[in-house]
């Protein structure tokens, strides 16, 4: 079994964060959903975004790889700096951003008409730069990273929809990993899964963070405590507090954080 994130030492902040948010606001028409969030995401860690439903955590997550570009009426203000480049600079290609900052959604969404194999390599085929032997290597590597290879290696050319829900979610993770992202955004990736499948995903996060930086939205505070190194608590669109997970859950600086962690609301 993979080590749990809770058993791993909590890292000190790195000198250079992989993502820096500077005064990020997100609007949906007249709705001001995220209000001036500034924070840093450290490399090779798991950062959990927590807060009550509707607090803006998923909206913030989607701002980190320009997913709001695809939403009519959405507008993002402020800066999201990835490895020294503001991803909202008009010269930056949003498709290129999503190759290095991937996303796994709340519900498993494998391409229904594609096999397991073709789902994994879908992003690479768009680039049209890989030979079949290279694709074979990428499929094996990505499925192993997603802890799925042993379960599907004999059914690579079967329909992806034939997999269980938990397997489909790990396939979506493998599909994201195939293009070698630096950051992986995960929007409540276990909320539609049973406890056993959830445990597999949580174990996987502890391994994956050695290869990619992970930002995860979760409605489950116990999950945040188990899988994350850093936690950011949001309320009504504002970032209330961010810090090492142990500190947020046991010694929060803000009274509102303590009230949420202790179950007084949310």
Tell me about this structure:
By secondary structure, the chain is α/β, with parallel strands linked by helices. 34% of the residues lie in helices and 24% in strands. It contains 11 helices and 10 strands. The protein has helices at 57-63, 94-100, 116-120, 122-127, 132-145, 149-152, 165-177, 195-208, 221-227, 245-250, 255-261, and strands spanning 19-28, 31-41, 46-50, 74-82, 85-86, 101-104, 183-187, 213-217, 230-235, 238-244. The strands form 2 sheets. Strands 6-7-8-3-9-10 form a 6-stranded mixed β-sheet, sandwiched between helices. A hairpin with a 2-residue loop joins strand 1 (19-28) and strand 2 (31-41). Helix 7 packs parallel to helix 8 (195-208). The longest helix has 14 residues, at 132-145. It is globular and about 55 Å long.
A few lines on this structure:
The protein is α/β, with parallel strands linked by helices. It contains eleven helices and ten strands. Helices cover 34% and strands 24% of the residues.
Q: Which geometry do the CA atoms define?
A: globular
Strand order of the largest sheet: 6-7-8-3-9-10
Order of helices and strands: EEEHEEHEHHHHHEHEHEEHH
pLDDT < 50 runs, ≥5 residues: 1-11
Number of strands: 10
The pLDDT mean sits at 92
Helicity, in percent?
25-40%
Question: Radius of gyration, rounded?
Answer: 18 Å
In whole angstroms, the N-to-C terminal distance is 33 Å
Query: How many H/I helical runs?
Result: 11
Largest sheet: 6 strands, mixed
Strand content: 15-25%
Structural class: alpha/beta
Features:
266 residues; alpha/beta; 6-stranded mixed beta sheet; 4-stranded antiparallel beta sheet; 11 helices; 10 strands; disordered N terminus
């Amino acid at each position: 079994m993979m080590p749990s994130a809770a058993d791993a030492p909590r890292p000190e902040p790195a000198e250079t964060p992989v993502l820096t948010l500077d005064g990020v606001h997100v609007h949906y028409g007249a709705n001001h959903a995220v209000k001036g969030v500034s924070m840093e995401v450290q490399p090779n860690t798991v950062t959990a975004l927590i807060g009550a439903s509707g607090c803006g955590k998923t909206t913030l997550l989607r701002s980190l790889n320009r997913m709001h570009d695809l939403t009519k009426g959405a507008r993002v203000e402020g800066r999201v700096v990835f490895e020294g480049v503001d991803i909202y600079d008009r010269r930056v290609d949003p498709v290129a951003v999503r190759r290095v900052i991937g996303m796994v959604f709340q519900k498993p969404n494998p391409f229904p008409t594609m096999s397991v194999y073709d789902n994994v390599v879908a992003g690479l085929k768009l680039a049209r730069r890989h030979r079949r032997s290279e694709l074979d290597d990428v499929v094996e590597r990505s499925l192993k990273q997603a802890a799925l290879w042993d379960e599907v290696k004999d059914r690579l050319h079967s329909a992806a929809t034939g997999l269980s829900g938990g397997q489909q979610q790990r396939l979506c993770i493998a599909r994201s990993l195939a293009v070698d992202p630096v950051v992986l955004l995960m929007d409540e990736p276990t909320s539609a899964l049973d406890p056993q499948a959830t445990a597999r995903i949580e174990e996987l996060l502890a391994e994956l963070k050695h290869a990619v930086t992970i930002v995860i939205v979760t409605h489950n505070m116990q999950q945040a405590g188990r899988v994350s190194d850093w936690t950011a608590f949001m309320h009504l669109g504002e970032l209330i507090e961010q810090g090492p997970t142990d500190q947020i859950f046991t010694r929060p600086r803000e009274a509102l954080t303590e009230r949420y962690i202790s179950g007084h609301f949310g």
